Every structure is written in structure tokens, then in C-alpha cells.
Amino acid sequence: MKKLLLASAILCSYTASAQKLSSTERKIVASVQQNMPQSEKLLEQLVNINSGTLNVKGVREVGTVLQKEFDALGFKTEWVAMPETMQRAGHLVAQHKGKKGKKLFLIGHLDTVFELDMPFTKYTRLNDSTATGQGVNDMKGGDVVILAALQALQANGLLKNASITAYFTGDEERGGKGPESRADFIARAKQANVALAFETATNLHTVATARRGSSTWQLKTFGTAAHSSGIFKPAVGYGAIYEAARILNSFRETLSQEQYLTFNPGLMVGGSEVNYDEAKARGEVVGKTNIIAPTASVVGDLRFLTEAQKDAAREKMRAIVAQNLTNTKAEITFSDGLPGMAPTPGNQKLAALADQTSRDLGYGPVAAGDPGSRGGGDISYIAQYVDCLDGLGVSGKGAHAAGETINLKEFPMLAERAALMIYRLTR
């Protein structure tokens, strides 16, 4: 009897929430649900194609599968090629022109972190609520959410006046070098009013109004090569390794408590002879315990929420580098990577839309997540030009690792939410 009453209460709660949906919106939800078997079948097909960033053939194959689906929806599709020297697959763009509502820019990516030389894991259902497979979570599941949402709108005749560009990059996980990699992406996004990105959802109740940017730095230190018995003496000094250690520790002491700011020394080499190969992320070193190291090199990343935070951190790091130990020198260089995505008022409005849509569906509240819990993403390249929201893809666990999973119970819910958000923005 208690179970029956509980089930009745849940049903009444859902019915009350569903009544907040218009008749058209209820049809959209029904279409998403009806098409879920086909959506999961498509996801399985995509996951079973290896599309590690450097597997150009595999990335293009994933794009070709999606291209056919968008062609069927009446979108104009094209490939944006990259220079051959970049060794990247390029990007798939699907565009639908209309004159009603907001101009939307939907973001996905075709590649995964799993390259051809890594063990391959096919799509496998572990139980009724969980499946695993390479990229099932990040972000082939998100790509399918985009398509499932648009298919539901098309099934109800709701795309004909919508202005939507769906952009799937081919090198999100390992971006090609040079401005050409994102030039077309940025140019097309500037024509939109709203950008929605379908990277992994932390869970059903969290979206991303902000993401940290990332850049790299390289520290080089120099000392006087001499017998180790003379170390610390004024004429000899401390050597390159102690100078590097001083600088790294000062970075930690000075900057490590600042919110959203992190800096990680990922590789360090020091000794009598040092060689660092940036392309291969590999260092070679020769040294002896009784020789004071004349050179050392450290490379790392710097993550930040805003450009102002990045610039301020760099200035503090430069100041620390300049305070050399006796008979040592040091220099630091910075390279820009992914910009930050700040939590703007426009982004907050989009989060409010996600929250209201979720509540109207009966799925509960949605709030902006902690920017410090996410890495960078393609949406950051355009955050300064357009209102943005990310984390709209599927939920699951273990992204970027063997055993990556998708939450199949939340999969249709997230597709429904995406469909209604797109509908409300374009009507």
C-alpha cells in the first residue's frame, strides 16, 4: 500500500510539472522518447568507430555518419578542411537558416582521447542504466543529444523557421597548431546570439556558465658548473636545480590559494646536459652527483577563469623568476592556449532557462557548477562574443579513461531538456 501511495505521489508530481509544458512541448518530449532506441543505436555506431584525434580517417568517418543524419533533417552540411601540415581531420558544419528567434550555435566534437595505439573498447551495455565505450561520455553522447533534440523538433515541424548552426570540431581533445584550427569556428559563432555546448554533464542538475582557460609556460634556469663541494659558496652559487626549486616553491607559496587558479609543473629536467623535445614532450639529461647542474628546464600549464586573472598570475610569476639565487639566472616564457569562459550575466540567463525547462519537465532544479571542476573546451574560444552555456551533454563517469560510462537513465531526460531549450530559444 505504501509503495502504491509513493508511486501515485510521484506520478502526480510529474503530471503537475508536465502541465507546465505546452501541448507542442509535450509532443516534442514524446518524439524524443519514441526515438530513443534509434538514438542509442546511433550512439553505439559512433562509439564503435575509433576517432582518436590523430586518427584522421576515424574522425572523418564519425563526421560522415553525423553528416548523413543532418542531411536528412534538411541542414546544409560541409567539411571545413585544415592545412595538410596540421594533420587534423577538419570540422563538420551543419547549418539551417531561418528568421525566427535566437540564432543558435550548437557545439560538439568528433574526436576522442583514445588513439589507435590504445586498447579499444566497444559500446557495451553493462546494465539497464549504464553503458561503456570509448567516447560514449566525452562526447559522442553529447553529439547524439544534439541530433536527438533536432530530430524531435523536425518531427513536429518546428525547424523550418529556426536559425541553427551545429559545429563539430575534429580536434577538440588535441587542437591543431595555428589560428586556422579555430578561425572558421569563431567566425561562424560571431553570427549567432547563443552558443550551447554539449560537453559532458556533471549530472542532471548542473550546467557550466564558466570554464577555465589554459596556457603553458616554460622555465629555464642557469647556474655555474663546478665541483659539488663548492656549492653555496659565493663564487659558485646554488646551481640551476636549486634555482628552479626556489622558483617552483615560490609559485606554490604565492599563488596556490587563489580561487580558480592552478599551475602544474608537468615535466622537469636538470643537470650537466639537458635536452627537451617539445613536440614529443620528452626530456633527456646527463648529470653526475658531484657536478653542480648548470642548467634546468621545467614546463607546465596555467589554468585561470578570466584573462585578467591569467595576466596577473603571469606578472607575479615573472617577479618571482627575477629574484635569483647567488650566481644563477632564470627566464620564463608563456604560450597562450585556450581562453577562459567567464560567468557573464548572459550565461546566467541561459542557466536560468535550463533550470526552468528542467523544472517544467519535472526533473528538478539546475544550477551553475563550479568552474574549477572542469577543464577547457571549444566554447571558450567564443565566450567573449556570444552568450554561452556548456555541460549540456550526457552524464556518466570516467571521461578520458578506460571504462568511461554513460548514464542511460538520464540520457533521454537530457535530450528532452535540450530539445525544449532549443525550441524555446528559436520560437
TrEMBL record:
InterPro entries on file: Bact_exopeptidase_dim_dom, Peptidase_M20, Peptidase_M20_dimer, Peptidase_M20A
Keywords for this protein: Hydrolase, Metal-binding, Signal
Signal sequence residues: 1-18
Domain of life: Bacteria
Domain Peptidase M20 dimerisation: 209-325
Gene Ontology molecular function, alphabetical: hydrolase activity; metal ion binding
Matching Pfam families: M20_dimer, Peptidase_M20
Name assigned to this protein: Peptidase M20
Species whose genome carries this gene: Hymenobacter sedentarius
